[in-house]
Design brief:
This protein has about 130 residues and is mostly beta strands. About 0% of the residues lie in helices and about 50% in strands. The mean pLDDT is about 95.
Length: about 130
């Protein structure tokens, strides 16, 4: 196919739990991926996807992790469209605005503004650094 209804490329990874769509995951834990729990984690893998346009390892056991493309992502804090986002240590499985990001810590770039201390969801372009 040369086009798809959905907007991300994902791969199935064996996860430590059944995570909600938009959860930020990192390589590690008891299985291949687990939800993020520390600030600016260099082990970032991607975001749990709902309906990937292209899914690699379709027959594997686990959950689809968006590696590239547009997906909803759990976030908190003040984020402006275009900001890079990284893993959060304050809220597990969540992203926040990246301040002075280090190589390998970026989840993606925000496609929407967000401003709340509560966890919400916005679309990001995952994998963009």
């Amino acid at each position: 196919a040369t086009s798809a209804q959905y907007a991300d490329l994902a791969e199935v990874y064996n996860a430590d739990a059944d995570y909600e769509v938009g959860t930020v995951v990192v390589f590690g834990g008891a299985n291949e991926v687990t939800q993020s729990t520390i600030d600016a984690d260099t082990r970032v893998a991607g975001v749990i996807s709902e309906n990937p346009a292209y899914l690699m390892n379709n027959g594997a056991t686990g959950q689809p992790v968006a590696l590239i493309g547009k997906v909803p992502c759990k976030v908190h804090g003040m984020i402006k469209k275009g900001d890079m986002v990284t893993t959060s240590g304050e809220h597990s499985g969540c992203a926040k605005k990246a301040i002075d990001p280090k190589l390998g810590t970026i989840v993606g770039k925000a496609l929407e503004d967000y401003n709340s201390t509560e966890v919400g969801s916005i679309f990001i372009s995952v994998g963009k650094q």
